[in-house]
Specification:
The complex is a heterodimer of chains A (201) and B (658). Chain A is an all-alpha fold. Chain A is built from six helices and no strands. Chain B is 66% helix and 2% strand. The structure holds protoporphyrin IX containing FE (HEM) and copper (II) ion. The site of copper (II) ion has 5 residues of chain B, from helix 8. Chain A: It catalyses: 2 a quinol + O2 = 2 a quinone + 2 H2O.
Chain lengths: 201, 658
Amino acid sequence: MSANVNTSLPLEYQSGQSRMNILGFWIFLGAEIALFATLFGVYAVLSGRYAGGPTHQDIIMIREVMIQTILLLTSSFTCGLAIFEMRRGNKNELIMWLVITLLLGAGFLYMEINEFIHYVHIGASMQTSAFLSSLFVLLGTHGAHVTFGIGWAILVIIQLIKRGLTSVTARKVFIIGLYWHFLDVVWIFIFTFVYLKGLVL
Amino acid sequence: MGIKWDEFFITGDPLILGAQISIALTMIGIVFGLTYLKKWNWLWTEWITTVDHKRIGIMYIISAVLMFFRGGVDGLLMKAQTSRPEMEFLSSQHYNEIFTTHGVIMILFMAMPFLIGLMNVVVPLQIGARDVAFPQLNALSFWLFFSGAMLFNISFVIGGSPDAGWTSYFPLAGKEFSPSIANNYYAIALQIAGIGTLMTGINFIVTILKMRTKGMTLMRMPMFTWTTLITSVIIIAAFPIFTVALALMTFDRLFGTHFFTVSGGGMDMLWANLFWLWGHPEVYIVALPAFGIFSEVIATFSRKSLFGYKSMVYAIVGIALLSMLVWVHHFYTMGSGPAVNSFFSITTMLIAVPTGIKMFNWLFTMRKGRIKMTTAMLWSLAFVPCFTIGGVTGVMLAMGAADYQYHNTLFLVAHFHYVLIPGVVFAVFAGLYYWWPKMFGHLLNEKLGKWHFWLFVIGFNVTFMPMFFLGLSGAARRTYTFSAESGFAPLFLLSAMGSIVLAAGFAVFCYNIYWSLRYADRNISSDPWDARTLEWATATPVQHYNFAKLPEVKSLDAFWFMKKNNEGLTLKDSEIEEIHMPSNSGQPFIMCVLFGISGFFLVFEWSIAAAVAALGIFAGLIYRSFDYNDGYHIPVDEVRETELSWRNKKGEAHKHVS
Ligand code: HEM
Ligand SMILES: [Cu+2]
């Protein structure tokens, strides 16, 4: 199974096992789409059910959300740069861009946690209403994914430092890249359907 | 955390006390037995840490048989309770628990693992591969299923079993109406097992798409492989919905959110929708592979190629698509209005079209075939009329207007048993009789098999046929007793008697396993059924690397044509190369233990302890990330020796030449 090596392909695609891992990860992302689609559906059904509690307009802090969005979108861009450097075989630049990506991600996460704390302070907790339950779980699932991604990427960076750029580490970086872009896409939907729609409607 | 120890063990019920004692004794017995026979090491190195798809498949199947026993006992207890009017064998609470665990165990811990087990054993062989795409992930899938199943099963002695039905509808399943921890078992055990299933889905899609041997195009794949592929796609689409639904249930019950609650703006019918958005496709997740098994068995024993191969493929794809569009038929009575109900009536009835196509294809496969009445074939033959009864009553239930009459009656219970038992149980029995030699190197006894078959099929019909009529005359499902005046007594008694025959059939099956393990002839050829597909193009039982030389496929029914044209059956010394295989790993099992512990704490709402155990899960993931073991190589000599040991025997088509 380790045979099947094709050196004309980019490093991360060279071994047969790597090609399978990458395909497997795409399918996993398919499952993630189904998962987030369900959460969005739940949110769509419950988002008007305030049960006498706060509404969208009462809680959304659009300035902070804009900053979060910019942080995360930029991190997706730097993640793209990381893969670009990987394709050119520059290990150090790759690591640098990955670290920048993670810092941006951590900034996003810091703001999101603050946002949650703020909500709870003004009396909008997960237990208040169906609307808030669905909001917290939708945002929280995304945030948990980002947290998980940061931890995972740190592990991969350690392996990059220890082992250099091999077909295995390259594949791991590539897969993390897919994951990170995916989280960005989910955020765009959250930004549109939760925040913008919440403000306008 | 507020641990309530008085709720920990279930006390005060003699049935359960008996169960607790027997569980404890069995465990002690197993530990002593293994120690005495010095088998711990063997168990660990050969089974627990294995990443071999065939052994993983066997472990799935063993677990499924055990779960069938457990679920079957539940079924018999229910039948005993309703055998006479006003029986006082089980209390209403106990009855509630039992139909809940019966339903969950039969579908999630019996049907699914049985089929996934057979997929594991057979699919890599059918596509001419040496393993699945991700062998260690495969082991993890199994161990997560096992962890979930064990967690769910201990509920009846520790903490209490869930009692809100296998559908666990809200508001009943919520904290307000089910305050004890029992329903947490449902939310958490199914979550753990579900993660395993999802990973199985990914694994099989990649395996089938990427690891087919040379020449095996998609349209040359055996039908069981096709159904596995489509099933895996349904798993990817449907299981995440259940993951979310269970997570939201857990939040509602443990952390006071308002997704499905009555207060706080929650919406109970949202649960029903999410549940069936997963639940209906789930029915096809178990039915499609079963259809695949019948296709293989019928083609082999009719000694013909499967009739209408292409239409079979389109039919399963069609069924998969439609299966996503029918979920509302489970609650027409919710009152969504005529337009919605009509839409879902039509989509539901449409499923009968591809299913009908498949039926006719099987019949035409048999037409003019030289049919061999083996036990596996008998199951396939019995499937046709029995499943048709299930299908026709399904079309009756599909009519939204009429369903107001049948809804929640035993008519429905009879219907889905007529679908699930012929459609899944008959299939796994057929598959076991057929593929048993591939796993164990000997056949199951055919004569005992016939006893098994007749008792089971007759018992099944006598048990469930009366339920149609009971349901039509108004007997509600999930009711623990009935009055003598209702007039239900004769049919209920008949049904209970049928279930005894059914149980006798299952007992013969267990005895058959025992008998065959001990006495069956080990000196069989690698192809005892004169079969058609690649799993038979190698040794029986299969050597751990599956194929010394990967076969080349030139047509459908590849092995049949290899035999006919006498191609590719000989192995030359010069063709033997060393073979790369994945190494064993204990990590999946350790993850199983950690998930089990963490889940157990979460069931008891000991969140801090659960979080600590979850740290262990993360440690396991980190360990895996740093694990760079990429297997080992089997030397040429070892391969040659293994091949020589089974090729060149008398009556063996496979040869070895130096
Ligand atoms: C082996 C013999 C079996 C017997 C005797 C049996 C008997 C029963 C009975 C008596 C009920 C409850 C009826 C009521 O509502 O009061 C029931 C429910 C059910 N059975 Fe079976 N059954 C058997 C096999 C199976 C199999 C193989 C499956 C699935 C693969 C299955 C799935 C279910 C489900 C999902 C329910 C509904 C549980 C609920 O109401 O929540 N059963 N069965
Ligand atoms: Cu359905």
